[in-house]
Structures are given as structure tokens and as C-alpha cells.
Amino acid sequence: MNHIRILIPALLLAVGSTGCGGSPTRLSAAPPTPGVALDTVASGLQVPWDLAFASGGRIFVTERAGRIRIIQDGALRPEAWATLAVERRSEMGLMGIALSPDFAQTGHVFVAGAFATGDERAEVRVVRLTERGGRGVEPRVILDGIPATRYHAGAALRFGPDGMLYLTTGDATRPGLSQDTASLAGKVLRMRPDGGVPADNPVAGSYLYALGVRNPQGLAWHPETGSLFAPDHGPSGLPREWFRRGRDELNVIVPRGNYGWPDAAGDQGGGGFVRPLVEWTPAIAPGAMAFYTGAEFPWRGNAFVAALRGKQLLRIVLQPAPGTRTGWRAVAAEPLLRGTVGRIRAVVMGPDGHLYLTTSNRDGRGDPAGTDDHLLRITRQR
């Protein structure tokens, strides 16, 4: 594996209120972390969107073109574990992946992707595959009908600590759907592994867990409290978005919380909407996020957000905020890898105590080098 020395400059970020109705504050610059390096785990991937770890050292990676790849013992297998006929226009394709908590017994792997519906339209579906003989077979759709278009598909997919499957969905470039409780677009959804609606969902008989989001592409639970966090992409100056720009968010997701889109973006607040912990203007285009639980760096409990446009990995220091709506505030930030590896899509905490991340330089918006894209691991410089 190749080591890359990283220099970490300071950064000051504008953030929203801490959830108690105050005016916007600013994040201070966290002390830079010395000795950060990267190991290259695999190269030659094609827009790796998400990854998941299995026992025995295997890493499952989704490529947006529709392939699920396996990395084992530091080698990328040449053949795909499974290939799905996804719709591949612009931002659509194969996206989130989550291994069942009982994967060792069932072999179940869940993915989220965009699929053509036959009428020149597309929809996001959650598909369950089963491993047999080292391949993913028997695809079964457990949820479909989620509006999709070329942009704003969301599609982060994770099992929560409660054993339920959570999915983020974008507004499919139709902002009004985010506030429409009859639509699955612009939401955080919660489902049983068989695709059914959990009996204890905040809205009876509905997958809806939270609403009013634009294009969230990450989900992570705090390792100690179980609080659910998700970043969200802000508006990009389109007429249907009232020409607003920036206002990317980091949110704490509360049951039946309304995050305001399209009526509010970033820290605009008002209307009983849940306000973000962090607002990024100019936009960084946040991808996935993870919490650090390792021991190599003094980062335990810190949130990490991947930035596509921002071309960096952001470490965010959080503090409990009892008595506030979300229970948290963001207090400091440190940029890592800024401008070093290009666009960063996924960040996941590995079972070996290291953070893993993927680049997204072949997605049509980056500047790919000959060996892009990569799966990388953050380690200490030796």
C-alpha cells in the first residue's frame, strides 16, 4: 500500500444555530491532527458510491454503473459480485449498500439504485440480493416507486441500531415533493428488512421517518447515544429553487422532523422546521458521513463528512446540548485531505478501527488520473 503525507490547514466554517433558536454562530478551527496518511486499498474503480464490510476481511463496493465489487486481501476481484441493470443518466445509478446484520447466516445484501420504469422515467428501488457460491443472486425488490430523475436521488442506505433499514431520498428535482407526505421523495424512510412498514414508525402505516430534505446522501448514528445524523445538499441556483445557492447542511434526524426544504434552506429556520447543526456556504456538496470509533487518533465521537465539490474530508467536533430540539451542537471543524485526492464520495468506519473513503473523480465532475477511482484508508504516518 502507498502512503501519502497529508498537510492540514486550518478552516473556519459558518454554521447554523444549535437547535435552540439562537442566531447563526461560527465553528472554530479544531487543532490540526499531525501524522495523517493514506493507504491505497484498491484502484481502478468506476465511481465507487458506497461500501460495506463483511467478516473475513471482504469489502463490498457499489459502482454507479451497476456493479457490486469485492475487495479482499488488498486485491480488487476482476469479476463483479453482482451486476444490476440500473438507469445511468447523470447522477443516477447504483448507490447505497448495506449488509444485513445477519449476513453471515442469510447472505443478504441490500442496495439502492435508480431503475428505468419503461415510460422514459425512472424510480429508486431497494433491492435485496442473496450470496450463493460467492456471487449475488436472486434479486428481490423490497421497496420501489420512489420518484427519481437525473439529479437528486439521495439513496444512502443503512441498517440502524434498531435493526431497521433506513433510506434517504432526494426531491427528484421537484422540490414540492419534499413536503408532500403522500410522496416518498425528499424524505428519510424507515422499513423492515422485508420491506414492510415498522409498527412503531412515527406516522402509522407510512415509511416516513423525516421529511423536508433535498438530496441527502449519507446516514450515521452516534456510537454512544444512537442519535441519527445526515448531511444534505443545498440549492444550486435553479429557478425552481428560487435562485438560492449554497446552504449545504448537517442535520440531526429526529422522528417526524421537518427540515424545511423547499420553504427553508440551511439556517433559515422558521415554520417549526428543524434547523441544521452546520451550514456550508459556499457549498461543499456533502456525500456520506461516519463517526470515528477507532483508537489511532484522538477523534472518538467526531463526525466525518465527505465533500465532493469541496474535495476534502471534514472532521466535526460535536457537543451534547441538553434541552435543545436535536440534543447536539457543532463546535469545531478540521479539513483533511483538502485538494489531495479530489472528490470524496464515501466515508465509512472500518472494523479494523480505520476510516475508509472513496474518490469520485470519474463521475463527470472531477479530474480523473489514470488510476482513479480509489478506495483509501486513513492511517497514522509511520
Question: Nutshell version of this structure?
Answer:
With 382 residues, this protein is an all-beta fold. The chain has one helix spanning 103-106, and strands at residues 3-5, 13-15, 25-29, 36-42, 48-53, 59-63, 67-72, 75-76, 82-83, 94-99, 108-116, 122-132, 135-148, 154-159, 165-169, 187-191, 208-211, 220-221, 228-232, 248-253, 257-258, 278-280, 286-291, 303-307, 312-320, 328-336, 344-349, 355-359, 375-380.
Shape: globular
Q: Superfamily at the CATH H level? A: TolB, C-terminal domain
The pLDDT mean sits at 92
Q: Calculate the terminal CA-CA distance, rounded to whole Å.
A: 13 Å
N-to-C SSE string, H for helix and E for strand: EEEEEEEEEEHEEEEEEEEEEEEEEEEEEE
**What is the tally of beta strands?**
29
From the alpha carbons, calculate the radius of gyration and give it in angstroms. 19 Å
